[in-house]
Backbone:
């Protein structure tokens, strides 16, 4: 009995939980629900330690909320379509389905070893026909509702492999596999009309109070609302393009119009296309631009270049002034009107361009009001006082903006215009391993959506990956079909959906994963929105935005009937797991298990060769600084791994994985174990009155409760360390056994197997997994708590104890979990909740 044996104990408790069905989520309207979800993994083959930290956090929340009386939904699934499976098929001749399902099986086993309280009956894989068939139904409904469109758009084309490339497959402008310079091609593609919802998606961000500010800002920048003017200026008469009389511009800075010294249109602007063969060097320049790297980063960093066309624009307020027109590589056809007037003094891109082509740089906004203000070696954006600007001189730039816009409108030159950076979501992918788009192409009827009774369109199994391109194009038997409208010959659409589609509604599917419709309205009404979503900040933009779009689109098509159109009430973005890096003299990366680390350096375990120790970075295969969760679990048990990953730094920050840290966690659990073994020898005195041990336990658990509510898991663990020392220090106190029991219960969300074992040893005959959270007795908290009476609709009904420094959020969380309050609210949100710090809480139900 001297040592806790995780290897023996952990599987036993997992069996006990499974037998008792504690993780099953069943709708129960008499209890408040709590839906906690971690972003589901891609089945790459093995669980990464970064995943395990994420899931450990979700599991703490799930187990804690369950103990607080919530009916908890905590599901798991697989984001299972995507390119790596196809690459495996090409490289290793394994069918993508076989590769994917093998990986899922292996990773499911690994996850189960962690002791996560997941309702595995709800498991879904997006590559499962049962899932993607429902996605096809959604697609058809969206199409019906006008939320899906089909139009031409530019793709990256690999001229050697004859295939469309995703942006991430374009490396330095070349195809990742062929190495050939990538071309742009126009293809007809499917789009979700996310831009129709731009304004709503933007304004609703304001209501996302429980999302990190950083993520809210990223969402709103991505949508990128800009208010400005759309104006048409006249071209000076010319012989080149007599049909073009004006160019239309979009500008967010109408105030700077007197600083304009040139105009530029995108290489694929209609005017530029009309000029291609009339202006020397233009066709070549356009060709060069077409080959340019399409990533935003490349676009921003590329040298600003252009071709002068010989055309001129007449300045709208001074007909003697002419602005030369260029075709320039930094103007995008897809934004605004695809044309700009350049103000080098106040826009850096224009400044770079003007410097290269020796165009005038005229300051028109003086930040400090000095009329003699001069520009240095960079543009000066921002507001100030107007100078060199005729009738605008002396105005501040905001006033000048509206003055200029009024004049434009008065003269019929243009209007105020709001633009969004957000583009429609192109969902067509020319690949095999994705959800088939359920339409056919008929010779007579054109593009025809399938009828629901024709679904699902299953992927054909028998396809070859020997040639480049989309295997579905070559699957002739599969492709050949009949038209649902006229019965004539038709071919199936061979595009499959972007895998971001799959992950945009899985949270809703978890509510009724086996339903014959995409959702079951009773189920989604009960479970949604997700109360706590947890995932990496790398998904802060697209995945979350697409899910927010889907929630609305599903609302509009009747698949969700919730007044809330947001899918995730609260979002937490966790930090990553990092590790030192090791390199031998030859520059090779070495894995942690190959290295013997000492206080003053490191050597290779087998040869003794010295190893240089590099910075701690995110674990990645390329630098070999990874540890395998399974090895850790094998050696120390899942609870040690969970404890360590949550102990060392705040959950939103990165944690550095160190061997000594894990060992420290393991030693601590052994220490608690000895304490438990000793306490178990003491007489059981649950009604023990007062003593230092029971006081310490109540105080600690009280603080831990607040810490868990506030996602401060590292602090909660620090308090558990402290409590262990306190309990080990008291002798001669009849409350030690009771206090120790309380401690193991508070440890339960972090170390569930271990806590069950301790609990059993201390005489507990229930499963902690199905037990309520320990109750805190205010008597023991003495002066470090304040009691806040809770009034419900004006009558005092209950009270809570909080520490004097508890913040509004924590208090609010505790109030909403008070049994009396919960009963009064009956599942609804309070109409108002007013907290008067240190005095009273008023709930308006
Ligand atoms: C004149 C000007 C003066 C501008 C100045 C900026 C600063 P956001 O905020 O992103 O909406 N622009 C417009 N369309 C463009 C396109 N298709 N490709 C590249 N640039 C484009 O940016 C709006 C500004 O970006 C517009 O305002 C325009 O330049 C440029 F001191 O007009 B501005
Ligand atoms: Zn037809």
Residues:
């Amino acid at each position: 009995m001297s040592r806790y044996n995780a290897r023996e104990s952990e599987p036993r408790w997992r069996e006990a939980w499974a037998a008792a069905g504690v993780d099953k989520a069943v709708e129960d309207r008499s209890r408040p629900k709590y839906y906690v979800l971690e972003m589901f993994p891609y089945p790459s083959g093995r669980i990464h330690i970064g995943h395990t930290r994420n899931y450990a956090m979700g599991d703490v929340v799930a187990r804690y909320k369950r103990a607080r009386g919530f009916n908890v939904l905590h599901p798991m699934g697989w984001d299972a379509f995507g390119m790596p499976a196809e690459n495996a098929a090409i490289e290793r001749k394994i069918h993508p389905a076989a590769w994917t399902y093998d990986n899922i099986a292996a990773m499911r086993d690994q996850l189960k070893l962690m002791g996560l309280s997941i309702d595995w009956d709800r498991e879904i894989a997006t590559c499962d026909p049962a899932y993607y068939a429902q996605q096809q139904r959604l697609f058809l409904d969206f199409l019906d509702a006008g939320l899906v469109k089909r139009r031409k758009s530019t793709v990256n084309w690999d001229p050697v492999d004859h295939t469309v490339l995703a942006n991430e497959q374009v490396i330095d402008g070349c195809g990742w596999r062929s190495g050939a310079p990538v071309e742009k091609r126009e293809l007809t593609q499917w789009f979700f009309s996310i831009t129709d919802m731009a304004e709503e998606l933007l304004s609703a961000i304001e209501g996302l109070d429980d999302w990190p500010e950083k993520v809210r800002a990223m969402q709103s920048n991505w949508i990128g609302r800009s208010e400005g003017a759309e104006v048409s200026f006249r071209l000076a008469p010319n012989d080149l393009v007599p049909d073009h009389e004006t160019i239309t511009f979009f500008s967010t800075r109408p105030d700077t119009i007197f600083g304009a010294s040139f105009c530029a249109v995108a290489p694929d602007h209609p005017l530029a296309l009309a000029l291609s063969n009339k202006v020397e060097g233009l066709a070549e320049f356009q060709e060069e631009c077409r080959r340019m790297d399409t990533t935003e980063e490349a676009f921003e960093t590329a040298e600003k270049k252009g071709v002068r066309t010989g055309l001129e624009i007449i300045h709208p307020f001074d007909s003697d002034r002419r602005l030369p027109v260029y075709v320039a590589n930094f103007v995008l056809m897809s934004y605004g009107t695809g044309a700009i007037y350049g103000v080098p003094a106040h826009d850096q891109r224009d400044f770079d361009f003007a410097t290269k082509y020796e165009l005038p740089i005229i300051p028109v906004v003086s930040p400090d009001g000095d009329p003699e203000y001069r520009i240095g070696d960079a543009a000066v954006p921002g507001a100030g006082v107007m100078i060199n600007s005729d009738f605008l001189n002396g105005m501040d730039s905001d006033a000048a903006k509206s003055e200029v816009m009024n004049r434009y409108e008065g003269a019929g030159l243009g209007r105020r215009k709001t633009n969004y950076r957000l583009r429609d979501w192109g969902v067509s992918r020319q690949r095999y391993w994705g959800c088939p788009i359920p339409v056919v192409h008929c010779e007579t009827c054109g593009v025809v959506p399938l009828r629901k009774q024709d679904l699902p369109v299953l992927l054909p199994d028998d396809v070859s990956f020997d040639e480049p391109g989309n295997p579905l194009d070559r699957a002739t038997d599969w492709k050949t079909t009949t038209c649902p409208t006229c019965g004539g010959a038709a071919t199936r659409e061979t595009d499959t959906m972007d895998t971001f589609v799959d992950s945009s509604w899985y949270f809703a599917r978890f509510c009724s994963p086996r339903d014959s419709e995409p959702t079951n309205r009773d189920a989604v009404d009960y479970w949604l929105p997700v109360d706590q979503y947890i995932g990496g900040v790398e998904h802060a933009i697209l995945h979350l935005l697409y899910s927010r779009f889907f929630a609305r689109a599903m609302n509009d098509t009747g698949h969700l009937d919730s007044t809330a159109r947001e899918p995730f009430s609260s979002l937490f973005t966790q930090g990553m797991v990092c590790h030192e890096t090791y390199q031998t003299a030859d520059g090779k990366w070495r894995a942690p298990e190959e290295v013997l680390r000492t206080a003053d350096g490191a050597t290779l375990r087998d040869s003794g060769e010295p190893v240089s120790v590099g910075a701690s970075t995110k674990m990645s295969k390329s630098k070999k600084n990874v540890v395998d969760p399974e090895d850790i679990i094998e050696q120390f048990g899942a609870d040690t791994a969970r404890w360590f990953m949550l102990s060392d730094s705040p959950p939103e920050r990165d944690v550095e994985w160190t061997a000594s840290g894990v060992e420290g966690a393991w030693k601590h659990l052994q220490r608690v174990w000895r304490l438990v073994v000793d306490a178990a020898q003491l007489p059981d005195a649950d009604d023990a009155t007062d003593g230092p041990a029971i006081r310490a336990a109540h105080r600690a658990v009280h603080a831990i409760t607040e810490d868990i509510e506030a996602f401060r898991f590292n602090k909660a663990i620090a308090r558990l360390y402290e409590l262990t020392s306190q309990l080990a220090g008291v002798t001669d106190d009849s409350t030690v056994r009771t206090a120790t029991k309380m401690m193991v219960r508070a440890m339960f969300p972090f170390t569930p197997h271990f806590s069950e074992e301790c609990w059993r040893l201390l005489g507990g005959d229930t499963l902690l997994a199905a037990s309520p959270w320990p109750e805190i007795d205010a008597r023991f908290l003495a002066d470090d708590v304040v009691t806040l009476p809770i009034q419900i609709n004006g009558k005092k009904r209950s009270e809570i104890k909080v520490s004097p420094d508890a913040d509004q959020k924590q208090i609010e969380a505790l109030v909403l979990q008070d049994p009396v309050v919960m009963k009064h609210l009956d599942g609804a949100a309070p109409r108002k909740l007013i907290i008067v710090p240190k005095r009273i809480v008023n709930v308006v139900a």
